[in-house]
Design goal:
Distance between the termini: 23 Å
Helix content: 10-25%
CATH architecture of the largest domain: Roll
Largest sheet: 5 strands, antiparallel
Structural class: alpha+beta
Radius of gyration: 18 Å
Order of helices and strands: EEEEEHHEHEHEEEE
Number of domains: 2
Strand content: 35-45%
């Protein structure tokens, strides 16, 4: 599938600020499931190129603006060709070992309810990939998708207790439960072309990736109860939403 994307983010400062530092990870990932046909990132009409790749394998640009900055406009746009690999991140290169993604963060700390959810999924038995799918099904069932029901700092524990959230919350609950079982897990930011049946309303999106022995990193989108298909474009990953912010 060929997906045309235009992503605009605007910031206004009143009064103007003396300097702005930014880190951008708005470049599509390189792996077998997606091919970038064209892509351009600009900041105030200036073309931005990545400076390096981080430990997760993501392209990163760092920028510093000086001198009475009143507004910043970032635009990422282009066309990405995608292939459905059933969620498997095949062909992606990153120097960090999966074990790094066992690290807990404040947003992904497991409480008693998350531990119970994790053990419920693990008790279904079967191969690791089957238990991972069981965990996704449970998160989808226990956390209803509801736009505006949470905020940027909402924790996995709070989302599960509320029984509702957005894609960020589904990913955080999935990650917290997986790590509680000793499964490396990370947060992924990207784009999603939603269908009419989808739980999320599409556009910018987030999901989880779990390390599955024999398969490597596999994506799980509990907001829609499916693994990423060719309707997804992957940008970057991290330990949680803050770490993976594009």
């Amino acid at each position: 599938m060929k997906l045309a994307i235009r992503h605009r983010t605007a910031y206004a400062y009143d009064p103007a600020v003396s300097a702005v530092a930014m880190r951008l990870k708005l470049f599509p990932s390189i792996f077998d499931g997606q091919k970038t046909l064209s892509w351009r990132v600009t900041l105030n009409d200036r073309v931005v190129e990545p400076d390096f790749r981080n430990g997760y394998g993501d392209a990163v640009a760092t920028l510093f603006l000086r001198g009475g900055v009143a507004a910043v406009e970032v635009i990422a746009e282009g066309v990405v060709e995608t292939t459905d690999l059933a969620g498997v991140l095949r062909g992606h290169r990153a120097p960090l070992k999966p074990g790094v993604c066992l690290r807990e963060t404040p947003r992904t700390r497991a409480d008693a309810a998350i531990l119970a959810l994790a053990h419920e999924a693990d008790a279904t038995g079967g191969a690791p990939i089957e238990r991972a799918h069981a965990l996704q099904d449970l998160v989808t069932a226990r956390v209803a998708y509801r736009a505006g029901s949470s905020h940027a700092a909402t924790t996995a524990a709070a989302a599960l207790a509320a029984g509702e959230g957005v894609c960020q919350d589904h990913a955080h609950v999935m990650i917290a439960a997986a790590r509680a079982l000793g499964w490396p897990a990370r947060y992924v930011a990207g784009y999603y072309l939603a269908s009419e049946e989808g739980g999320d309303d599409g556009a910018t999106h987030a999901w989880a990736e779990l390390w599955v022995d024999g398969l490597g990193w596999v994506g799980f989108d509990a907001a829609n109860d499916l693994c990423p298909t060719d309707a997804y474009v992957r940008l970057c990953s991290g330990l949680d939403a803050a770490d993976a912010s594009p």
